[in-house]
Design brief:
Elements lengths: L4 E5 L5 H14 L3 H4 L4 H13 L3 E8 L2 E11 L9 E9 L8 H16 L3 E4 L6 H9 L13 H14 L6 H23 L1 H22 L11
Parallel strand pairs: 4-5
Antiparallel strand pairs: 1-2, 2-3, 3-4
Helix pairs in contact: 1-3
């Protein structure tokens, strides 16, 4: 650990500093509402609950004796879809003026110690998709892609489900489907019949031309031959 860098488990006396750091992290994030609440009292309560949980792990980092970063994590025991104990890192943050001083590495080192103490064989993190710096930082330390998280508001999902339901056509019953099949076959037969009659239709211009020639011949006959008798 570099000189001036100190990482230790947080205590209730650190709540004010942790709340301040969390609000700074929220202000930097483009999707702050997904990171934490902006209500200090509510945030203080939430971090206090994590501190009090047997599975909660809260680390605070100091640089030159000043609070400059934190890591929030939770021990995840084996469950329905997980057969090993792991440490889930919910948030890790180093304030802007303290970066590139080794504090981020020290916080992750503290997470490794917490994982070993809990018997966890894996660590996983779910950084915000837009936090490119954090993604690169974790990738350099060996964190590999494992899953993708998406978020939607309850109201937005409710509207989308209603829209999709309204746009989905109602399935036709079996008898109606049979009628459609019969109609398609009838149309196909009629199309074949029209195709077979096409040469006949093609002779119509010839017949019309013959009638015109006949009329032209009649107009050239002597007037006596064109006399009509009643």
């Amino acid at each position: 650990m570099r000189p001036g860098v100190l990482v230790r488990p947080a205590h209730p006396d650190d709540l004010d500093a942790l709340v301040e750091l969390c609000l700074e992290a929220r202000g930097e994030a483009a999707v702050g509402s997904q990171l934490c609440t902006d209500a200090s009292d509510r945030l203080r309560e939430q971090i206090g609950v994590l501190l009090g949980l047997p599975t909660g792990r809260v680390l605070i980092g100091h640089l030159d004796d000043e609070p400059a970063g934190f890591l929030l994590a939770r021990v995840v025991e084996p469950g329905l879809f997980l057969d090993v104990t792991s440490l889930g890192i919910e948030a890790v943050y180093v304030r802007a003026g303290a970066r590139r001083r080794g504090l981020g590495h020290a916080l992750l080192g503290g997470a490794v110690t917490a994982a070993e103490d809990a018997g966890a064989t894996e660590l996983y993190a779910a950084p915000i998709p837009g936090a490119r710096g954090m993604h690169r930082f974790l990738a350099r330390l060996g964190f590999a892609p494992a899953a993708s998280h998406r978020v939607v508001t309850t109201a937005a999902l409710q509207r989308r489900l209603a829209h999709e339901h309204a746009a989905t056509p109602t399935r036709r019953s079996a008898p109606r489907g049979l009628e459609d099949l019969i109609a398609r076959r009838r149309q196909a037969r009629e199309g074949r019949v029209r195709h077979d009659d096409a040469p006949v239709a093609a002779d119509q211009p010839r017949a019309s031309m013959s009638m015109q020639v006949s009329r032209a011949v009649q107009t050239r006959r002597p007037s006596a031959s064109s006399t009509t008798t009643w």
